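Suppose a classmate hands you a notebook page containing two proteins, each written out with its sequence and a corresponding row of structure tokens. How would you begin to make sense of it? This section walks through that situation. The first entry is reproduced here exactly as it would appear on such a page.
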Amino acid sequence: MTTTRPARPDSGAEVDPRRWQVLWVCLVTGFMTLLDVSIVNVALPSISSGLGASGSQLQWVVTGYAVVFGLALVPAGRLGDSYGRKKIFLVGLVLFALGSLACGLAPSPEALIAARIAQGLGAGVLNPQITAIINSEFRGAERGRAFGRFGATVGLSTAVGPLLGGVIITLVPWQESWRLVFLVNMPVAATAFVLGLKLISDRASAERSRLDWVGTVLLAVAVGLVLGAVQEREVLGWTLVVVALAVAAASGWAFVHWERRYAASGHLPLARPGLLKAPGFGPGVLLGSLYFGGFIAIFFTVTLYLQDALRYSALEAGLTQTPFALASAVAAPWAGKRVAAQGRQLVVRGLVAVVVGLLGVIAVVELAAPAVGDQWTGLLLLVPFLLAGFGSGVVIGPNVNLSLANIDGRDAGSASGVFQTFQRVGSGIGLAVVSAVFLSVSASGDPRDALAAALGVSALLVLAALAVALVDVRRSGDGDGSSEPAEDDDGGGARAGADRGGETGRRAA
């Protein structure tokens, strides 16, 4: 069955001969911003002793970055659509670099929190431009390979964060080596700025409009309250958490209705009404949200178990999870070459591998390690982490690719912002639920059982994502469930059917 779609406005644009160089600039920048989500976790004890930060202040060092990151995504994506992704990319890069510098030089916990908020704003401005640039500059089989490398970047940055932070804290002979966790961004950001200025094409939509401030505020309230409530649930208490989530739901409802009215009046909304109904986009958003809800929590709970229960150092805990990162990095480009042929079915296979890998981790912790000795836990986790990491590499990049494939080029930034915002919300809620299960069981029982229970919740979230993928394959009407654009002469236009998609995938492979 062949399904056609309108040509994207940028589909006839000249292909940029420097697009692969641009891709590497985007990937390095994205790696840097995503790394800062997790790298700071292993530095918290050093920050506490160095600045005298309280537990609540340390929480805000983590939360401030994550919340503002999520708040900025959709407005920044629309700004990139309207005023040029190159301009907004460079603005976000400067904000992130200045925030990193301020973090590294922070004289007090309050100053560090403020700097982390600025850093998170820069990351939120940058990331929708990255996926929008990839979506616009690459076509056909090349597009799958580009998003495959993007998926590898996401997997590596998430899993390698604790390892890199542990290396810096452990090996640098300086009492305040935690500052290097932030200052290491400076040379990377400076290099990316110079290369981005030189290489990225400044393509902006003809549909330029002022920012929808009412929609921005309504969306910020909804996203901010959800992320803030789930991450600060212990401080707020469950009553205030429920109230915050209710207000967030009301604000989200108001946002949807405002966007419809705003678009009907002839203005450019943050997200066009019906965006989630684009073929493959709605299921991809839901799948990504559920998957990241389980995926991000894996590293938090495993790191806690290894360091608190087994007394691993930060470096040893990071090394234990390295196989996941390496397998993900290998799998993502491999999957990128095959997504045109296999579509969402490829994602289904990746999700199955992740679930089996997580069950393998549970089996190691509950059965194998006690039998041979807990000191072997890190080594025994090698195989299940390799399997889960390979599956993750097959999920992330192809899901982004398939989700954005049928999005009008004028809305690439906005759609990327919406996609990543849902991922941030899913990550926040998943991490809150999984960590609550871990801490609750460990407080009244064996830490081993606590990790097994937490990873069981992660596996359930991944299974929910698998169910979404299976429904999407069935509803797509073709054999592969693919939403990948065909590699036409003009770079887009009609979506390939199963036969043509298979031929494209064979050429890519």
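The notebook's second entry, a different protein, reads as follows.
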Amino acid sequence: MAQYRLSDVNVGENYTAKELDSFVSTTDVILLSNNGSQLFTEPDREYKVTMELDGFFEHSSQDGEKYYRDKKAYIVEKV
């Protein structure tokens, strides 16, 4: 699977699920997909990166507070 290793993705470009799988396995990022929990079920399905975010807010169920996470998040859509 070494040929699929990605260290970066670009908004507007298409990637296969196996490329995105490699990307999230080697990079500290979050992927948000309109394909629900099935993002990695079809390795050759293509997804387009539609947006890149520098971080996000997360609600803590432990203390009820909202925290900003300084972590890249990418939104991908099925092609």
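A careful reader of the second entry would note: The longest helix spans residues 17-26.
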